[in-house]
Structure formats: C-alpha cells, structure tokens
Design goal:
With 200 residues, the protein is mainly beta. Helix content is 4%, strand content 48%. It contains 2 helices and 15 strands. The strands form 2 sheets. Strands 1, 2, 3, 4, 5, 6, 7, 8, 9, 10, 11, 12 and 13 form a 13-stranded parallel beta sheet that branches.
Length: 200
C-alpha cells in the first residue's frame, strides 16, 4: 500500500519461494516435502493506494497461487523476472504494465486479470494451461516464445513464435534451465523494435 524501494540486482535477485524450498538460502525447520502452492499472493501491489507505479527488476517467484497481483495505475515495469511452478503469474486489475524479459515455467495461467493492458517483450513460456485466461486483459507480446501452451487466449503483437511442446527447445547452462538450445531457430529471431535498454 506504499511506494516500493526495490533493490533486486542481477547477482542479488529478490526471491519469493516456499518455506519448504531448500534450494536457496538457509533451510527452515521443521520442513515438509516441497509440494503444491504456498503463498496466496506472493506480492500484492495496491498502486492506487500507494499513489505510485511499481518498478521491479531481477526477481523470481515460485510456488505461489498468484505471483504478482497489481491493482491500479498505468506505468508499472517488471523486468528480468521468473515465475516458476505457480498457479497464476500476473493478475492485474485496472492496471497497465510492461513486462520485459520474463520466464513463465510450469505456470498454469500466465495472465489472469481485469480491465488491464500488458505490453510484454521477450517473454518465454514453458508449459501452461493458459497464456491469457480471459479477454479482460489487452495483451501485446513482442519477440516472445510460447511453448506447450494449451490455450493462448487473446493477444496481439509481432515477432512471436509458438511450439506445441517445449521438447528440444531449451538447454541447461549452470543453474538456468531455459536457455535456447544450441542451433535453435529462435536465436536472434523476433524483431528489433524492442526497448533499447532491454536489447542491450
């Protein structure tokens, strides 16, 4: 409900994860087997009350029912973000946002909201039931890769590619599991008209 001072950096990202996830930080005891969804909403931003747009970068949200709920205002920017094993990725209400360089991996519904607009560049989706669950979000994608998405819903844009399955599209490098495979036709693809800072 107040303005956010966000301090995520490339080598020190902000991570929202399950109590039972011991893959990062120090383990919490007692602990159970990692399963299901944990946070009802990992990060809820009431921008109308805060009277400020949110600028978030370098974040990872895992195992949440909803990753980010974004309410109100028109100039939010989320960049270098990962949503992993969530039920819903981004759930906006009466909001406009820009999403730049984002991964949705095993997220059941990537976008699910009302009366909102999302301008998204370089989005990678690996396996989803829905990209855009309802037509209440005007979704524009640019230079994005959608693999294994059962229902795309409505979206517009250019330079995008779809694949019925993620099989063979990605390779692991270090701790990252969604780098494009060597020799991929999706390398250096898309269009050049993306945000210049993102492109660099």
């Amino acid at each position: 409900n107040t303005p956010i001072v966000w301090q995520g950096t490339p080598y020190r990202p902000v991570v929202f994860t399950a109590r039972d996830d011991w893959s990062i930080g120090q383990g919490i005891t007692p602990s159970n087997s990692l399963s299901g969804y944990y946070a009802g909403i990992a990060l809820e931003i009431n921008a109308s009350t805060a009277n400020a747009d949110a600028t978030l970068q370098n974040l990872r949200i895992t195992r949440a029912q909803t990753g980010i709920a974004l309410n109100g205002r028109t100039n939010h920017v989320v960049s270098h973000a990962q949503f992993v094993d969530c039920q819903n990725g981004i759930k906006p209400a009466s909001a406009e946002f820009r999403l730049r360089n984002a991964l949705f991996a095993n997220v059941l519904t990537n976008f699910n909201g009302t009366s909102s607009t999302g301008r998204c560049e370089q989005v990678t989706v690996d396996t989803a039931g829905w990209l855009n669950y309802n037509s209440q979000i005007q979704l524009n994608l640019t230079s994005s890769l959608l693999a294994g998405v059962t229902n795309l819903g409505t979206y517009s844009g250019s330079g995008n590619a779809t694949a019925s399955s993620p099989s063979g599209l990605f390779q692991s490098v270090g701790a990252g599991a969604h780098y494009l495979a060597a020799g991929s036709a999706h390398r250096d693809a898309g269009i050049t008209g993306i945000d210049p800072i993102l492109a660099s």
